[in-house]
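2.7 Reproducibility. Because tokenized structures are sensitive to small changes in the input, we list the exact sequence used for Cytochrome b5 heme-binding domain-containing protein, including any N-terminal residues retained from the expression construct. No trimming or masking was applied before prediction.
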Amino acid sequence: MATEGNMPQAEVMSIASPINLILLSLFVVLLYWHFRPTPPVVLPRGPDPIVFRTYTPKTLIEFNGEGDRPVFLAVRGRVFDVTPGKNFYGPGGPYENFAGRDASRGLAHQSFDEEMLTKDLSAPLDDLKDLDDEQLENLQSWEERFSEKYLVVGKLVAEGDPEAPAS
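Resulting structure tokens (single pass, no recycling of outputs):
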């Protein structure tokens, strides 16, 4: 029988032991990470919607990509928004002469020279009747490429056409 003198003394466990303090700290950090306030998700603002409309050579010319303006060009009466290709069709690009213009004749001739553009914006639209089969094929190829890659945002009509927007 054990007497009071030889009984093992009960070790007193402290709640403030180092391991308990580490575990408590870890628990508090995990709680913070789980319930911490998160900033609301902000989605990037998309481009303004483009409404299909009718253009004349005089109203199309302003869409040449200068400043923050979009870049439009016309091919056989269809106006394409080529803004995603602004580095090609906008200011400083190899096709910049076509920005805001009817590019049909130049594309058909595979020429990016200014002589291919109609100088008189009040003149009737180029009917392209003098193009040969090879030039028409070139133009068709370009038109298909634009149709696959860019949005059609309008149509091009001559000044004075009944569908022309009022100036």
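Strands lie at 53-55, 72-75, 78-81, 151-156.
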